[in-house]
Amino acid sequence: MDKVTVYRFTKYDITTDQPQKSTRWATRKAIDRVNGTVLENTAVEVDASVVGSEIEGMTARGFDPHAQRGFQTVVGTGLRQP
What we know:
By secondary structure, the chain is mainly beta.
């Protein structure tokens, strides 16, 4: 599987007149394309398949690269019996 490095970034928001942190993660190339500012200390290597499904070089909104992926290893219902 191919890997790609993505970053959090900020972009100027005209509605608030301030930089806003994007809800997406993106490659440097994509961030440069939208005139964003890379948040350097946020670099994370992810599977390339999570980038570009909606916007080239960017993840979906709300993407969390730290969320556990794979099979569930703990089983429990979390429900109380009456």
